[in-house]
Amino acid sequence: MFSAAGRELALVGGSVRDGLLGRPMPDLDFTTDADPDAILAIVNPWADAVWEIGRAFGTIGLLKDELQIEITTYRAEAYDPDSRKPTVAFGDNLDDDLVRRDFTIGAMAVRLPERVFVDPFGGLADLTNGLVRTPGKAIDSFSDDPLRMMRAARFVSQLGFGVDAEVREAMSQMAERIDIISAERVRDELVKLICGIRPRAGIELLVETGIVERILPEVTDMQLERDEHHRHKDVYQHSLTVLDQAVDLEAVYAARQAEAAAEKAAAEKAAEQAVEQAVEQADSTTPGTAPEAEGAAAQDAPAGPVTAVAEDPQRIMVPDFIVRFAALMHDIGKPSTRRFTPDGAVTFYHHDVVGAKMTRKRMKALRFDKATTKAVSRLVELHLRFYGYGDAGWTDSAVRRYVTDAGELLTRLHILTRSDVTTRNRRKAERLAHAYDDLEHRIEKLAEREKLDAVRPDLDGRQIMDILGISPGPAVGQAYQFLLAQRMEHGPLGAQRAEEVLRRWWAEQDGGSQQPQ
C-alpha cells in the first residue's frame, strides 16, 4: 500500500529486536516518510479500526485482524532542559530516524516490501553480545530524553544484558535529569524493570549511577544499615537477595497452582463424564425415568465451565509486580527505626509498620493506583507476622487471623515470608522452612474445614438486629465485630450457639438490653 502510494515503509525498533530474539511481538511498529495525514489516507480503507491519539507525535495506531499496529512518521525529538515533553520534528529519511532512537538494539529496521535489513549502528552485534549502547553519544541521547536512562536499566533486567561503559558513565553524570520526567512515565519503566528476568541487576544499575536516589531514595538509604543479624553487608543487599528469592518462589507457587488447577479440571471432567454415562444408562434401561435421572445427576454436576481457578484472587501470575516490589521495599523502615541497646545490639522495632507507611507515600508520589499501593504496603506491614510461629506455636485462632489479615494477599505473603529468610545458617534456614511448611499445612486443613478465605460471623447484621431487637446503628457493628472475634477464636459456632453468646454479651453491655450510644 505504501509503496503503491510512493511512500517508504519499514518495520522498526522493538519489533525488529524482539523478532531477532525470538520473543513474542504482540504489536508491530513501523516508520515511514509519510506524514500523519498521508498515513491515514493509506490505511483507512484497509484497517479494521484507526486511532489518532499519538497524531501530534506523528503516530497513527490501527487494528487489523486483531493485530495492533503503530505507524510513525520519520522524526527527531529532543527535550528542552526544563520540559517534560519532547519537541517533535518530522524527518524525511530512515537513517536520521534511526540515529535518534534510544539504543542500537532498537535502531534496526527492515525496509518493506524489499525486506532489506538496515543496521547502521551495529545493533545486531550488540544484540548478540548482550550490550546496551546508544547510537550516538550517550550523554546527548540522555539529555534529549532522560527516560532512556531508566530504559537502559529496564533492558538490563528484561534481557539480561550489560551496559556499555559510556552508557553507565552518562547515566551517572545525567542522573538529575530524570527529575524532569513525569512520575507516571518513571513508574511505568520501574514496573517493567521489576517484572524483568533480572530485576536485581536493573536496580543495582540505578543505585550505582545515582538514579535511584531521585526515584526511590528509600532504597539508597538502606545501604547505610546493617540488619540485626549481620547476615549481609547491609539491609540493601539483604533486600536484593529477598527480591531474587521472591522471583524464584513466585514461579514455584505458580507452577503448583497450575498443577492443582489441571488436576481439578481433570477431576471435574471425569465427574461430568460419569454423569453423562449415568444419564445415558438410565435413558436406555429405564424408559420414562430419564428426566428424573438427569435432574438428579445435574445436582451433582459442576455448574457451567470451570472458572474458579481463573477467578481465584490467590492465583499468582509470573511475573508478579506486587510481591516483587514488596520484596524490594519490605525493610525500608529500618533506617528510621534503628536503635542501639546498651549491650551494643541493633534493633528495628516496628519497621514493618513504618515501612508500610513509607511505601504508601512513595507509591503515591509515583502515581501508582490505589489497589496496587494498598497491596504492596499491606505485604510490607505483614512481612514479620510469621516470626515466632516455630518457637511458640500458634492456636487455630492465630492461624485464622493470619489468613484473614492477609486476605487475597495470602499466597504473596507466603512468597515474601519465605523469601525473607536469607540466613547463611543452614540449620536455622531449614528450621524456618519447616515451620512455614507446617503453617501452610495447617492453613490448608483449616481451610478445608472452615472455608477460611471467607470467614464471617455465624450471624449477619439482619439476624443480629432481630435477635437483639435493635435498629441499624453503631451497636450492630459492635455486635458484628464481637461475633467475628468469637468466630476467629473458636471456629464456627453455629446459629444457635452464636445467638446464646450474643445475648450474653449484650446483657453485659452498659444499659443491659438497651442499645449502646
Automatic annotation (TrEMBL):
Q: Which residues form the tRNA nucleotidyltransferase/poly(A) polymerase RNA and SrmB- binding domain?
A: 160-221
Q: Pfam families of this UniProt entry?
A: HD, PolyA_pol, PolyA_pol_RNAbd
Q: Which UniProt keywords apply?
A: Magnesium, Metal-binding, Nucleotide-binding, Nucleotidyltransferase, RNA-binding, Transferase, tRNA processing
- Region Disordered, as annotated, extends over 272-307
| Cofactors required | Mg(2+)
Tell me the ranges covered by the HD domain, including all copies: 322-423
Q: Residue span of the signal peptide, if any? A: none
Domain Poly A polymerase head as annotated: residue spans: 11-133
What family does the database annotate? Belongs to the tRNA nucleotidyltransferase/poly(A) polymerase family.
Read off the PANTHER family from this record. CCA TRNA NUCLEOTIDYLTRANSFERASE 1, MITOCHONDRIAL (PTHR46173:SF1)
- Protein name (database record): HDIG domain-containing protein
